[in-house]
DNA sequence: GCGATCAGTT
DNA sequence: CACAACTGATCGC
């Protein structure tokens, strides 16, 4: 469970995944994915009120997250305040470019990469990325190497040697596919119940099962996927299917009596034969034994390995590749302490590999790192990698994008795009489709607050200069294809770059024998293709099957990859994403905010109008150009210069005063802050 | 009555 | 195991 408080030391005026307490003062909000524990305070009356008073405050998230969030009436009030791409900026001098990177955690999940005056910072949200995947993310690179990242706020859920390895998604998926295949092919009355928690994240499992067997999965609700056809087509509310993922408070009890959560017990008057599969995280310690990806836990109950989070070794691979100066854990695993986690992370950070003593323990993330402002005043410098980062080149195959291309936004792999991808299949993950946005510089803001007041609500739909189709896409069906371009086939090279796949059969891979719990049974299969199959008889007979169903992670993954590819989902993408696939989304800020106070931390959020889809054509825009490529959306994006203070005593700055402030800002001069006027903005 | 918190359950 | 959610009890506004 994330214990991240919502703010990052470098950019304290924005809040991520937390919307209560101190975060109520944030200038901009970010939501990495739609799990409740990352939405604390998001629907609280206090925040709602703040939103009503501060028209510039917006929420930034991926298109899928927006879609999922707005499905609930409780969050409808956010509708007009959600921005899908972004550049937070405060005029040309202070801007924060935010890049969304696929997180592989659940549909719509993303990591946020902030690049601005206080350094480049990565907030991972919850993530699951296989080894080598960071190296394949174009947007994490610049000039052929990984960006110089100051700090990483990391999902350390399994950052404990105890969770050394967790079978890959592909391994887990193929284990489940075989288990299901062995059951449902027996007769139309043999059904499986996927005992999933009511969270987003299992979609890729559903879509793959549906794809593989041509059977839709029964779920209680599918309204949230109404605009995600690639997921929707694999789900149904018709109970007469052999694969169920429906739920009920007394589901387990029902199951005991051969009754599914949705209530059905028979088909054509023939009693159903059911087995339950409970996705659970199973891991392999560094030197301990492994378990199988499928473990039988009872007569007709199984546990299947499934993890939304990276394992210890995946976290280490990711962090060591990024090699930030600082790494802060977002989660303290049970039984661990902050210090212990930091001890693990520290050696993977730059400070331990260079002489720069930059590591800061987790704690008050108060001080922004000091920057040499002069060096960052130039826009051009802002996005460069001024500090030589250990030369770690990204995986060769990925080089599709020109280094100079400035892409800002990528979509998460999970974004339901094409079915499989959307669900978080590997494919999508590894690939990166990125959105290249145009960078609009925020020159002057229009200071007409009246006018601006209307912007938040109408901006995206009415004022946007975006093409109609774009707007339409935005409002209606997300154009997932745009976000997910799949890469091509897996290549040998890619394998090289993909330790995880190659190592699957190596030392890290679990042994196939199962020594798991005494009563559990497992079938070890050498490769997915032949893996297990369930014995014919005893469907209900626990004994009869006990020696049949063990699926273990495949040592060889040839089969694994193959089967996944077949379903369209999980190929390792080694490949690169053609530059053409990058989209740029940038936003343009037209507005300026007047936070006079701490300029380093001041941030103005400017929502962008542009629809990602429209931007696809501009793939190779050099950064420089993209920065200048403003005009188009500027008008529609203008936002107010001020927010309406939430605090009663706050007053609106006068026009003349603003003018003065703008001039100061433009020249980089320091400004004497009059706190009274920006109390809300102070941090 | 609603929301936040916490303990317990799955 | 841990996750993400849900339920119920309690407390406060």
UniProtKB/TrEMBL annotation:
Polar residues composition bias: residue spans: 535-566, 629-641
An example Pfam family from this entry, by short name, is DRMBL
List where Low complexity composition bias occurs.
521-534
Q: Where is the composition biased (Basic and acidic residues)?
A: 472-489
Q: Give one GO term, molecular function aspect.
A: 5'-3' DNA exonuclease activity
Chain segments carrying region Disordered: 366-403, 441-569, 624-643
Feature: compositional bias, Acidic residues: 374-384, 441-454
Report which residue ranges the record marks as coiled coil.
none
Record InterPro entries = DRMBL, RibonucZ/Hydroxyglut_hydro
The entry's cellular-component GO terms read:
nucleus
Instruction: Report whether Magnesium shows up as a keyword of the record.
Output: no
Main location (coarse class): nucleus
| Gene3D superfamilies to which the protein is assigned, alphabetical | 3.40.50.12650, Ribonuclease Z/Hydroxyacylglutathione hydrolase-like (3.60.15.10)
Q: Tell me a GO biological process for this protein.
A: double-strand break repair via nonhomologous end joining
Q: How does it assemble?
A: Interacts with LIG4; the interaction is direct. Interacts with ATM. Interacts with BRCA1. Interacts with PRKDC. Interacts with TP53BP1. Also exhibits ATM- and phosphorylation-dependent interaction with the MRN complex, composed of MRE11, RAD50, and NBN.
Q: Which family does it belong to?
A: Belongs to the DNA repair metallo-beta-lactamase (DRMBL) family.
What is the protein's name according to its record? Answer: Protein artemis
> Species name for this entry?
Prolemur simus (Greater bamboo lemur)
**Which gene underlies this protein?**
DCLRE1C
């Amino acid at each position: 469970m994330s214990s991240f408080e919502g703010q990052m030391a470098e950019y304290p005026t924005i809040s991520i995944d937390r919307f209560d307490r101190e975060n109520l003062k944030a200038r901009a909000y970010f939501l990495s994915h739609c799990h409740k524990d990352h939405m604390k305070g998001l629907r609280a009356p206090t925040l709602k009120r703040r939103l009503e008073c501060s028209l510039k405050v917006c929420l930034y998230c991926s298109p899928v997250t927006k879609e999922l969030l707005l499905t609930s009436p409780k969050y409808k009030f956010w509708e007009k305040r959600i921005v899908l791409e972004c550049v937070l900026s405060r005029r040309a001098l202070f801007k924060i470019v935010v890049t969304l990177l696929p997180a592989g955690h659940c549909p719509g999940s993303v990591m946020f990469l902030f690049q601005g005056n206080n350094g480049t910072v990565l907030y991972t949200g919850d993530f699951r990325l296989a080894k080598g995947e960071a190296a394949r993310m174009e947007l994490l690179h610049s000039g052929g190497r990984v960006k110089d990242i100051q700090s990483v706020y990391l999902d350390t859920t399994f950052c404990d040697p105890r969770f050394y390895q967790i079978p890959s998604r592909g391994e887990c998926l193929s284990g489940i596919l075989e288990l299901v295949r062995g059951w449902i092919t027996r007769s139309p009355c043999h059904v499986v119940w996927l005992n999933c928690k009511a969270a987003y994240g299992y979609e890729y499992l559903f879509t793959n099962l549906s794809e593989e067997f041509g059977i839709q999965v029964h779920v209680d609700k599918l309204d949230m996927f109404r605009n995600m056809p690639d997921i929707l087509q694999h789900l149904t509310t018709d109970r007469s299917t052999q694969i169920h993922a429906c739920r009920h408070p007394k589901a387990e009890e029902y199951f005991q009596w051969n009754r599914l959560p949705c209530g059905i017990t028979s088909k054509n008057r023939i009693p159903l034969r059911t087995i339950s599969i409970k996705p659970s995280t199973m891991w392999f310690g560094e030197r301990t034994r492994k378990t199988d990806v499928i473990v039988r836990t009872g007569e007709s109950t199984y546990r299947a390995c499934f993890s939304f989070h990276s394992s210890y070794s995946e976290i280490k691979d990711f962090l060591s590749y990024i090699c930030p100066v600082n790494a802060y854990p977002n989660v303290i695993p049970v039984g661990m302490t902050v210090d212990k986690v930091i001890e693990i992370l520290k050696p993977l950070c730059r400070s331990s590999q260079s002489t720069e003593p930059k590591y800061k323990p987790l704690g008050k993330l108060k001080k922004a790192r000091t920057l040499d402002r002069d060096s960052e005043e130039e826009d051009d410098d802002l996005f460069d990698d001024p500090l030589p980062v250990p030369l770690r080149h990204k995986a060769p195959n990925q080089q599709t994008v020109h280094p100079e291309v400035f892409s800002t936004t990528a979509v998460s792999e999970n974004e339901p795009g094409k079915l499989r991808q959307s669900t978080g299949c590997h494919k999508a993950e590894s690939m990166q489709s990125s959105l290249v946005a145009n960078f609009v510089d925020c020159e002057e803001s229009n200071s007409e607050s009246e006018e601006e007041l209307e912007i938040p609500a109408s901006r995206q739909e009415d004022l946007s200069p975006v093409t109609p189709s774009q707007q339409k896409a935005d409002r209606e069906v997300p154009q997932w294809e745009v976000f997910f371009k799949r890469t091509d086939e897996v290549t040998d090279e890619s394998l090289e770059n993909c330790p995880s796949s190659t190592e699957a059969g190596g030392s890290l891979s679990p042994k196939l024998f199962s020594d798991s719990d005494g009563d559990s049974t497992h079938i070890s299969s050498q490769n997915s293709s032949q893996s297990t199959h369930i014995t014919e008889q005893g469907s209900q007979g626990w004994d009869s099957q006990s020696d049949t169903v063990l699926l273990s992670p495949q040592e060889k993954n040839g089969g694994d990859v193959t089967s996944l590819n077949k379903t369209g989902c999980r190929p390792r993408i080694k490949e690169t994403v053609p530059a053409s696939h990058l989209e740029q989304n940038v936003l343009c800020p037209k507005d300026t905010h007047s936070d006079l106070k701490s300029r380093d931390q001041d941030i103005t959020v400017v929502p962008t109008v542009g629809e990602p889809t429209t931007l696809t054509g501009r793939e190779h825009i050099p950064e420089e150009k993209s920065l200048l490529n403003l005009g188009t959306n500027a008008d529609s994006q203008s936002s107010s210069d001020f927010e309406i203070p939430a605090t009663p005593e706050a007053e609106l700055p006068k026009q003349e005063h603003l003018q003065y402030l703008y001039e100061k800002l433009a020249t980089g001069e320091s400004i004497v802050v009059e706190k009274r006027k920006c109390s809300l903005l102070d941090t």
